[in-house]
Write a structure and sequence with these properties.
Keywords: GTPase activation, Repeat
Number of helices: 46
Number of strands: 31
Protein name: TBC1 domain family member 9
Structural class: alpha+beta
Strand order of the largest sheet: 10-11-12-6-7-8-9-31
Low-confidence stretches: 412-433, 719-724, 903-938, 1010-1136, 1180-1198
Pfam families: GRAM, RabGAP-TBC
Shape: globular
Strand content: 5-15%
Distance between the termini: 29 Å
Function: May act as a GTPase-activating protein for Rab family protein(s).
GO molecular function, one term: GTPase activator activity
Radius of gyration: 39 Å
Helix content: 40-55%
């Protein structure tokens, strides 16, 4: 590639000059390629890899030099000799003569620089290259990465790091390349090369490890190997990036959400680190935004714009608190350096004034922000106040225009007179009252003290979304939220209030759209409606049930990936008790999509992940109990029911809502803390348990006894699923004391530590689910096929890998359509025709020659039984099994059916006369079988029995389909050891079938003769000039004669197209081989003497060609003469029509093939599947690598 000219001081150091002229020098780097300069070359090559010179310096370069100067300028470099030679030749042809005209050296230098920069600018313009995407150094590293590992352009490199890879006990210094879909390592030391490629989707464990020998190392585990990398300059950055990329891969396995680059990032500043790529910046920004959203419970599409250190004046304690301000598109947030001291969320929709206050020694660079509820927030010590104010002003302007747009939309919706919408409004909102108010049975006076405490808090700290959140707020939550305020505070603490405020009318529209719609989710919802808090009076009538139905159905339509999951009904029913219907919906959104991610999908992945986290925490905090609980298998049993329903299904209702209070305020750590407290409180009883049933009884009795003495609710019968024994009831446990003790004993659990544990467990859980899916698929079909379990597992991995590869680098269909985790195991992964072609070429024994792609298309159409253009693993294995384990009859039947294209079959009613007439043909075939010497009598009888069983209801093969079948046969044999013998046998069979087709025409009804005359006048299927329109037999023979060409039957044009190639009506030419007098009949016969019938069949064929005075050209291949088609299709004369009367049956095809022992042996010989699988796992096609089961083996050379 051309580069902006840069001066080079030492042109000869570490470089070898290969070409030179008065103005330009072409050089090759020492140590590159063969003959790299002996020991010096090896040392240079090693240093390039170790010191990152190979990423900066391509192995070839062109320097510019004026005759009287010592300063060289690099103007081009290349990764291959071909690329650099093209640049060199361009310079010689376009610049050398021009430069000789100049007299001044400075003019020459200026001209060359300007010309090169002009070429670069033109290239960037034509290829739409963005100026600041990546630095030149990183582009060179990306180019080297793709070249080293055979990756296509679609595989984007994110970053690369210097490190050591431990191969056994020997470290190899090199470079770790992290791309979107792969982890790769390359090392070149003293002539020895090492490569490693691991797909992120195959990683089962990724962790930082520290030992005495390796203080800082990263261990990457797959299903079959462990890889250790050490000696990083910045191990934390490397590990975080690897963790993020592995998370993206797991997300893709879970719900097909692949990576899409964010193009809205600001351009790279000149002072930024030069090595950082646009993708790396994108991923860093994503990680920061995720932490920002989690910290302040913001909507999932909120992007962090920036953050800065500052102080916040807090009026409640008259102090300036040191912390950080965060600014995003719709929010300004603050959190103190000292955790839990103070946090603040200011939505820009609430902001009225942003102004810079006067500077002073006490308050340098102050900034004042006022809101609609008359609160003013004073920030100070801002480093770049002017820039910050400008950014906030820009976002405020966008927010204002959004608010106006929403008001217009809402106004138009409200003014609608649609009867359905009016009905929905009347029905949905339940008179704007939550269910607990409708069915309130408690005395409001008992709540007075709690309500008064919260009102005092609001007076001091502010009320609503902009309130100061301090340690005092947390204390009030732990003491219990008043019943009347619970819904509002749940909305506030969960962040659901923000999503509801920014989506007015959204829930109402969802309810309208989902009304009257039925699917699997709605069926499950109807089934569970009456199981949702049936003991509560609010759900003992149709009003409460209808509200619950609407909320669950609306969410199922909002998020079809989740739809509906058991336990959602229990949680939603509690939300409806304290919040209005729309508020309950947004609380459910916050719960399912942000606070409990992946909990409520079909495989409850999130709950399984947190179950693993809970086990880790139990091992750390209650080690004496952990081993006992693991032996009993209790942790996995209890944690799912506890976590999925937030203890609502295992505790009395009035106590469980206190847990929900704390959960909405402090997140998932509350659930972990409480679960550990329950185990810790029952540690002695659990240690004495003999089995899991006894342990479950202990825990069930304990949770049943948790009471809320402050509750004003009447006692509601608790329908706990665990049965208690007949012993004395467990003493009451106060819920507030239990929650307080959980904070005291286990409050040190941090949210960021939980997220780190979640990542580790997510890898394990998702890979375990994938392994379970594989085992279930194999177990389902192992009895249907002759493949072994190990072979099926290997084939499944290849099948799945092809799906993943298409997700990475594009495919002809939507990945979501091909991978649906909610479907049965066999249907979860499916492939389309393009992916099938890739597997067909790797695994199917018939995939040889130029006709491979059309054959793959035919095979796919045959396997796609439901016509959805996708095939599942069972269909794939059924087709593959016939080729590897089927007998001769099964293979021939499959080959025949692949060429009978639906809609093109010749369907002729067979009358009695025709049947009786065809008996003569079959008698003739019988004579051929017995006396041709091809098969002995017992084999013949055996095949006749199979024939009778397998030939029912198969349609006929017309002329066009017959030609394609012949092409397929010749293509199959192109790489076989018995290639020549198979060609001769195929030619004999083809001739015989041609004659049978002609004989069959004699028995067609006389009523078709008139149609034949019309058909002959129709244009040919191929667009060619007609040179002969002779009807009848000659036209029939001319078309299939093309199939006698064993090599180069088709150009590449038809092979890759989606449609099947049209029939080519090519006539044979007949001539003798050079310098011999052999007839065309002798060319086709081998050394053995043919029987008269076989010979006469060919004589008929060749005679038809003689009538047209055409010639057959021959080519000598491996000392054997075979038939080939010469020239291109367009250079030969063709007939003008397809003979629609010509057809053969499966019986005729089968009988003809059985006359040739070479063909019989070819289709009967066993094929070794293990070798094909191994080859498929290791092969890497140009631009589209098919990776192995988990990773490539280390390749050492040199």
């Amino acid at each position: 590639m051309w580069v902006s000219p840069e001066d080079v001081l030492l042109a000869g150091a570490l470089w070898i000059t290969e070409r030179a002229n008065p103005y330009f020098i072409l050089q090759k780097r020492k140590g590159h390629g063969d003959g790299g300069g002996g020991l010096a070359g090896l040392l240079v090559g090693t240093l390039d890899v170790v010191l990152d010179s190979s990423a900066r310096m391509a192995p070839y370069r062109i320097l510019y030099l004026t005759p009287d100067s010592l300063v060289y300028w690099i103007i081009a470099h290349g990764t291959s000799r071909k690329e650099i030679t093209e640049h060199w030749e361009w310079l010689e042809h376009n610049l050398l003569q021009t430069l000789s005209i100049f007299e001044n050296e400075n003019d020459i230098t200026t001209f060359v620089k300007g010309k090169v920069q002009g070429i670069i600018a033109e290239y960037n313009k034509n290829h739409d290259v963005r100026e600041d995407d990546d630095t030149d150094k990183f582009k060179e590293a990306s180019s080297k990465f793709r070249k080293l590992f055979g990756m296509p352009e679609e595989e984007k490199l994110v970053n690369y790091y210097s490190c050591s890879f431990w191969k056994g006990k020997v470290p190899r210094q090199g470079w770790l390349y992290l791309s979107i879909n792969h982890l790769c390592f390359y090392s070149y030391l003293l002539g020895k090369e090492a490569k490693l490629v691991v797909r992120w989707a195959d990683i089962t464990q990724l962790e930082k490890s520290a030992t005495l020998l390796l203080p800082d190392a990263i261990k990457v585990s797959t299903r079959i190997n462990e890889h250790v990398f050490s000696v990083f300059l910045n191990i934390n950055e490397t590990f975080k990036l690897a963790e993020q990329l592995a998370n993206i891969a797991m997300r893709q396995l879970l719900d097909n959400k692949g990576f899409e680059q964010d193009r809205s990032l600001p351009k790279l500043k000149k002072k930024s680190p030069k090595k950082v790529s646009a993708l790396k910046r994108d991923l860093d920004a994503r990680a920061k935004s995720e932490r920002y959203r989690a910290l302040f419970r913001l909507p999932k599409d909120e992007k962090l714009d920036g953050h800065t250190d500052c102080t916040l004046w807090t009026p409640f304690n008259k102090m300036h608190i040191l912390g950080q301000m965060f600014v995003s598109t719709n929010y300004i947030c603050f959190t103190s350096k000292e955790e839990t001291l103070c946090s603040l969320i200011i939505p820009l929709r609430e902001v009225t004034i942003v102004e810079k206050a006067d500077n002073s020694n006490v308050l340098p660079s102050p900034l004042s922000i006022s809101t609609k509820n008359r609160m003013t927030f004073l920030f100070a010590n801002l480093k770049d106040r002017d820039f910050l104010v400008q950014r906030i002003s820009d976002f405020l302007q966008q927010t204002t225009s959004k608010i106006y747009l929403e008001r217009e939309l809402t106004g138009s919706l409200n003014s609608s007179d649609d009867e359905v919408k009016i009905y929905i409004k009347h029905l949905v909102w339940l008179d704007l009252m939550h269910l607990l108010k409708l069915f309130s049975l408690f005395a409001q006076a008992k709540e007075f003290l709690k309500e008064q405490a919260w009102k005092n808090h609001f007076t001091e700290y502010g009320q609503g979304v902009c309130m100061y959140r301090t340690e005092k707020t947390k204390e009030l939550v732990l003491k219990g939220i008043p019943e009347s305020m619970r819904g509002d505070l749940w909305l506030l603490f969960s962040g659901a209030i923000n999503e509801m405020a920014t989506h007015p009318g959204y829930y109402e529209d969802l309810v309208e759209k989902s009304m009257g719609k039925y699917n699997l989710a709605t069926e499950e919802i109807e089934r569970d409606l009456h199981r949702s808090l049936p003991e509560h009076p609010a759900f003992q009538n149709e009003m409460g049930i209808a509200a619950l139905r609407r909320v669950l159905t609306a969410y199922a339509f909002r998020n079809p990936n989740i739809g509906y999951c058991q336990a959602m009904n229990i949680v939603t029913s509690v939300l409806l008790l304290y919040a209005k219907e729309e508020e309950a919906f947004w609380l459910l959104v916050a719960l399912c999509e942000r606070m409990l991610p992946d909990y409520y999908n079909t495989r409850v992945v999130g709950a399984l992940v947190d179950q693993g986290v809970f086990e880790e925490l139990a091992r750390e905090y209650v080690p004496q109990l952990y081993d006992c609980m693991q032996d009993l298998g209790v942790i996995s049993t209890i944690s799912l029911s506890w976590f999925l329903t937030l203890f609502l299904s295992v505790m009395p209702f009035e106590s469980a809502v206190v847990v929900v209070d704390c959960f909405f305020y402090d997140g998932i750590k509350v659930i972990f803390q409480l679960a550990l407290s329950v185990l810790h409180a029952n540690i002695h009883q659990l240690l004495d348990c003999k089995d899991d049933g006894e342990a479950m009884t202990v825990l069930g009795r304990y949770l049943d006894s948790v009471t809320n003495k402050d509750s004003t609710l009447p006692p509601i019968p608790h329908l706990h699923s665990l049965l208690t024994d007949n012993g004395e009831p467990h003493p009451d446990v106060d819920i507030f004391k239990l929650v307080l003790s959980s904070y005291e004993n286990f409050g040190s659990i941090r949210a960021d530590v939980i997220e780190q544990m979640r990542f580790k467990q997510r890898l394990r859980v998702i890979q375990t689910i994938e392994d379970t899916t594989k085992r279930n698929v194999v177990r389902t079909i192992v009895t249907e096929t002759a493949f072994s379990i190990d072979e099926l597992e290997e084939l499944y991995v290849l099948f799945k890998a092809e799906h993943l590869t298409s997700c990475y680098w594009g495919g002809s269909s939507n990945p979501t359509e091909r991978h649906d985790p909610s479907l049965p195991y066999l249907e979860q992964y499916r492939i389309d025709v393009e992916q099938f072609k890739g597997l067909f070429n790797l695994l199917f024994p018939w995939a040889t020659g130029a006709h491979s792609d059309p054959l793959a298309l035919r095979f796919f159409s045959l396997l796609d039984q439901n016509g959805d253009a996708l095939i599942n693993f069972r269909e794939f294995i059924n087709g593959l099994g016939v080729l590897y384990h089927g007998d001769l009859i099964e293979k021939l039947k499959l080959l025949y059916k692949m060429h009978v294209i639906p809609g093109e079959c010749v369907c002729v009613c067979v009358c009695v006369h025709r049947c009786s007439s065809m008996k003569g043909v079959f008698r003739k075939l019988q004579t051929i079988f017995i006396f041709s010497g091809k098969l002995n009598t017992p084999e013949y009888r055996h095949y006749l029995k199979l024939w009778n069983q397998e030939t029912k209801n198969l349609p006929k093969l017309n002329q066009s389909q017959f030609i394609e079948l012949c092409k397929t046969l010749y293509s199959m044999f192109s790489e076989d050891v018995a290639e020549q013998e198979l060609y001769h046998a195929t030619a004999t069979v083809t001739s015989l079938l041609l004659e049978m087709g002609e004989v069959g025409k004699l028995f067609s009804s006389s009523g078709r003769k008139d149609n034949d005359t019309e058909d002959q006048s129709e244009p040919s299927m191929c667009t060619r000039d007609a040179t002969d329109s002779k009807p009848g037999r000659q036209a029939v023979l001319d078309g299939p004669a093309d199939c006698l060409a064993p090599v180069g039957l088709e150009g590449k044009g038809g092979g890759g197209s989606e449609r099947l190639p049209p029939m080519q009506d090519i006539k044979l030419e007949d001539s003798s081989p050079k310098d011999t007098g052999a007839s065309s009949a002798m060319l086709i016969s081998d050394d053995e003497t043919k029987d008269d019938t076989s010979m006469s069949s060919y004589s008929v064929l060749s005679a038809g060609s003689h009538e047209l005075d055409e010639k057959l050209q021959c080519e000598d291949i491996a000392d054997d003469t075979v038939l080939v088609r010469s020239g291109s299709c367009s250079g030969l004369p063709h007939s003008t029509s397809i003979d629609k009367d010509w057809a053969i049956t499966y019986e005729q095809f089968l009988a003809s093939v059985l006359t040739e022992q070479a063909l019989v042996h070819y289709f009967e010989k066993p094929v070794e599947v293990a070798a094909r699988i191994t080859n498929a796992k290791n092969i890497s096609k140009v631009g589209r690598a098919l990776l192995s089961t988990s990773d490539y083996e280390i390749l050492l050379s040199g």
